[in-house]
Design brief:
CATH topology: Rossmann fold
Order of helices and strands: HHHEHEHEEHEHHEHHHE
Strand order of the largest sheet: 3-2-1-4-5-7-6
Helix content: 40-55%
Structural class: alpha/beta
CATH class: Alpha Beta
Number of strands: 7
Number of domains: 1
Length: 274
């Protein structure tokens, strides 16, 4: 079943566009470091995705669905991919082009929703979807991605999971940095990828490492409505490295011994092949 939303699609799209246009206006693109954003110790999802793609990036036609400020789009372009970046927000697409200019690289931007990409079929070797599926109708979007992905092509994505009670408290508090329609992934949602792709691999991140976010809130008294913690932890990589390294090692051991705990992690990475 396709997930149903409380609001109509048109209202959701309008709300998402306005929210992300406002976000784009608030950011100074000249201050974004795309290498740090994607390679920081505290950006394990992107480091894992880049490793999974390996040498496939160079020369590949890559689609970034829901590109946001363009950190991943520009990074992949610098790695040699021919990038098309899509987003519902014109402001985000403008920011992406400015960021590409900062790094003297080029990419194509395309305004569309994830549920209706309006792109020619079977033209991309790789589709990257970062932190987006929890904003959209998942099965509809998967089918649209399959349509534009070449046979043998790869989908890489990461998104939050629904089950950790501590994270859910954070979500109820951090209303200013989230949209009303967000729906973190469930076990049923993950099964949709296995339904539509021949080969699906998953990797889970942020279990004990979530202690860092707890310290941000309860020890440093930082306001989650004024700061996007998941962005700040990357910007402050060096400040948190002393704690992140042992906790990440503990995560790896714990999830191997007790794999059922994986659903209490914050994020899941999915690598799926058509």
């Amino acid at each position: 079943m396709i997930k149903k939303f409380k609001m109509s699609n048109s209202k959701i799209f309008e709300a998402e566009e306005q929210f992300h246009d406002k976000w784009a206006e608030s950011v100074d693109v000249s201050l974004i470091d795309v290498y740090k954003t994607n390679e920081a110790l505290t950006a394990p999802e992107m480091r894992y995705i880049t490793q999974a793609l390996g040498n496939k990036l160079k020369g590949a036609k890559l689609l970034d669905v829901g590109c946001g400020l363009g950190e991943a789009s520009v990074y992949f372009a610098l790695k040699g991919a021919q990038v098309t970046a899509t987003d519902i927000s014109g402001g985000m697409l403008d920011a992406t082009q400015r960021l590409a200019g900062k790094y003297n690289t080029t990419l194509t931007t395309h305004k569309s929703t994830a549920e209706n990409l309006l792109l020619d079929p079977e033209q991309f070797d790789i589709v990257y979807v970062g932190n987006l599926f929890h904003h959209v109708e998942i099965e509809v979007t998967i089918l649209k991605i399959l349509a534009v992905l070449k046979k043998g092509g790869t989908l890489v994505s990461w998104d939050p999971l629904a089950y950790n009670p501590i994270i859910n408290v954070y979500r109820r508090i951090a209303t200013n940095v989230r949209t009303d329609d967000e729906h973190p992934l469930t076990v049923k949602d993950i099964a949709l990828f296995k339904k539509h792709f021949n080969n699906v691999e998953t990797k889970y991140f942020w279990f004990f490492t979530l202690i860092i976010f707890i310290l941000m809130a309860l020890v440093q008294f930082r306001n989650p409505n004024k700061e996007r913690f998941w962005k700040k932890v990357i910007e402050e990589e060096q400040k948190w490295a002393w704690l992140y390294k042992p906790l990440a090692a503990l995560d790896n051991v714990t999830l191997k011994i007790f794999p059922f705990l994986k659903y209490l992690c914050w994020n899941i990475v999915i690598v799926a092949k058509k």
